[in-house]
Amino acid sequence: MLTVLPARFQAWFAQKGWTPRAHQLAMIARARNGRHTLLIAPTGGGKTLAGFLPSLIDLDERPKPNTPRGVHTLYISPLKALAVDVARNLITPIEEMGLRVRVESRTGDTSLAKRQRQKASPPDILLTTPEQLALFCAWEGARAYFADLQCVIIDEVHALRGSKRGDLLSLGLARLHSLAPQARRVGLSATVADPDDLRRWIAPAPEVADLVLGEAGAAPEIEVLLSDERVPWAGHTAQHAMAEVYETIKTASTALVFVNTRWQAEFAFQALWRLNEDNLPIALHHGSLAPEQRRKVEAAMTRGELRAVVCTSTLDLGIDWGAVDLVIQLAAPKGSSRLVQRIGRANHRLDEASRAILVPANRFEMLECQAAREAVAAGAMDGEARRTGALDVLAQHLMGAVCGEALSSDALFEETISAAPYQDLSREAFDGVLNFVATGGYALRTYDQFHRIVLGQDGLWRARNAQTALRHRLNVGAIVTGGTLTLRVSSGRHGGGRKLGEVEEWYVEQLTPGDTFLFGGQVWRFEGVSGNDARVTRSSDTQPKIPSWGGARFAMSSHLAGRVRAMIMDQAAWSKLPTDVQDWLGAQKAYSAIPAADELLVETFPRGKKHYLVCYPFEGRLAHTTLAMLLTRRLDRLGVGPLGFVCNDYTLCIWALEPMDGLDLDALFQQDMLGDDLEAWLDDSVMMKRLFRQCALISGLIERRFPGLEKSGRQVTFSSDLIYDVLRRHQPDHFLLSCARADAASSLLDIERLGQLLARIIGHIRPKALGRVSPFAVPIMMEIGRETVTGTASDDILEEAGIDLIAEAMA
Amino acid sequence: MSGPVRLEDGAVQVSVQGVSLALRPSGAVWLAAHQTLVVADLHLEKGSAYAARGQMLPPYDTRETLSRLGREVAALAPRRVIFLGDTLHDRRAEARIAPEDAQAVSALAAGLDLVWVVGNHDADGPVKLPGRCVQTVGLEALILRHEPQSGAQPGEVAGHLHPCAKVKGRGRSVRRRCFATDGTRLVLPAFGAYAGGLNLKDAAFKPLFAKPPLAGVLGKDQVHLIAWNQLLSDG
Asked: Which of A58, A142, A618, B203 is deepest in the core (most CB within 10 A)?
């Protein structure tokens, strides 16, 4: 086996005191046979080196060229920071072996000068991101640039695959295959539920990549923190356990403290510093902080200067930090795959177990944490639904491809269906997208003289002109960050102070000048907004006036939900739970009922002057919210007078003027709500307008950036809403409206899961009319008022704010 | 002078410089005594203007705007319709307009007196489309023109600025087109389907009103009068 490794490389391994791992050698063998390969290995298994070894060997062995060569290996990572870090890590073996290999990274942060130099004189190995690949695809020089390309390595494939970004990357790889058919693909991934699906994703369809498995690491040690304090009924902050979390941090050399939202991160960071009598270096890292600030934290981490970092999913992936020996998950992990990924951030050595502690924030989360621990122990991952490629992304890609070189419809179609997410795309649907790119795809054909791309006499499509191509390149990318404002420290009247980070527009909208809130571990006073900046000044308050938003961002996975349901039903297993949780389950059993695994318990009871309906589907917040919206419409028609609802991952609660215990629940929960009721609700929802804006931006219908003029997110919001209204009225079957509906169904509404739920509970609804609130209902009842969702049209706001006409007349 | 009165059809009747007029939920002004309908800033063919530059916005804005106008005409049967300027988005708009949309304008003009007050986008007025072209229109104490003039302008009724109001509610806010009036002058919202809006709190409105104006915000079926202190700036 060792013979596959050339002498120079063998010597290097020996000098390091290492033995090449089986999967590293297997990767070399696959490369020699020119095979597309997927490597699945846990973190710490030398995965990155395994990916690059074949390229390093090939570069070392190939004869010295007479003319300068193009790029040999292209590496694509979901994170800019990872691309830069891998570049640094590769340089060590290259220098130690004395290889003549040039490695460079190229990201959105790379200077224009360096990018131009990279184009003129390509490195042997180029490390970059999906967005940069999309830019390459839209460049006229791409074919020549990649003429010598032998290998494309895609890192963290599992994280990229299920998103629009993954769709864009998949299409970019298909384009690259047309430019450089000789190049093979290598995918690097963490453990997934269905490797075959990823193997198909990696290779050009209909091929399937070979699979190489790394050795499994030691099983992680996961503990659910049983606080001395009792597990609280409700909440998302795990405040009750903060002192114990702090003590646990002290036992580790470096800990990563994961939370689910940036607001939870802010809260936890603040709480830990209040306890931090030892002045431990504890830092904060989340996606809203300014990039420079995040880089600082990452650098301090690399230097081993920090004892803990409170972070969100921004650190789920990324750079290897050898020193991390403890992962703390604050509040429930929401899925076993995410948990495994996060635990993998601790202890990057295969033979030692990673150590992780789960800290449930409330009683249902206690069950969820327990379920997650068991799932990881059993090696059970969350399944991922098979993805159908988004058509707005395809529109962007087709425009880019044609900006890069002249192409025929047939060639574009063949290339498109070789990308796994688009494998089943019909020619008709493809032609529709191409027509959209060319003319906007309108039934009213007044734009025939204004094509964005034009079909020549030779049957090839080209960008209309250089200006059109330039504008496309300025708008490449699948992530729409619209609706965020820059948070800036106010300095004098004209702003221009230090940038703190980005914050969502909806959050700013709820603030009035003078309000204080937490950001970056500081309490800030909101001063107002100018242009795209939310201006703040430092506040001396210790308690912010505006509470952090506490909901979970990710819905609990179906897999974990199933385990939680099973756990509740299995009364014999209750003894594994803390006593106060056991008491709570017992009280629920005595007063109301414990539903069987396939049952839906629906409780109704009066409280105050209102009547409540609480049910426990355990299908995640998104599916619950959709269900609540649709139920509310039905209840309205039944004359019950629904007033509002609130949902979390486990429960949904609706309150109304009239009692709901006499209702025919089978009819109320009937599956046909996913038909007309859903359509009628969606048509008018603000969410659809947001989704439409994203599709319009991604597809290139509206532009984020115009040469020399940057539109603010809010300007875009306004005009895209107008377009949405007009399009809906005049061409309701337009391609972009379908895109927005598809996005709504798959992401925000979780229609698939709701459909499964409604099917599952037919004939299994267990009504329980109660005289008062049940133990299970308490957590959700405590959330009422903290997070209100109303389904009503925005006109109500105008009604309320409107002034009495007579009073105004007398003024 | 009387105070604002809510009319049955969702409009609000106000008085500007002593002249009574109705602010309609569509964004139009109805002068019942003169059987005159006034609409501002239609920006016809704005969509195709973007398409000509390579951004393929839906081409339905003109027919959307005209059908909105058609509904007002059907409801009120005016003797005269006044376009308050920027009716066409640019000088080339007439070359791009779909024949059926041009036909709709002609049909509209057939039964009434169509008056085009010119604006900065359509300073020459229409070339092919019917109607007569003027700089201003005087009606009782009112002077109708496209661009509002700075300082006190008693009786001025204008468009150009596309006013809109942002109103805070519980948890979120809404931003809608609006009328703005202080009782001596009036600014109309844009009537065109693709016309954007400028927040009433923007500095551009400052030189127009001696005291804070009242916003007549366009709701779905009615105009809501909102006081100045209830309005938010865009920030």
From this structure: A618
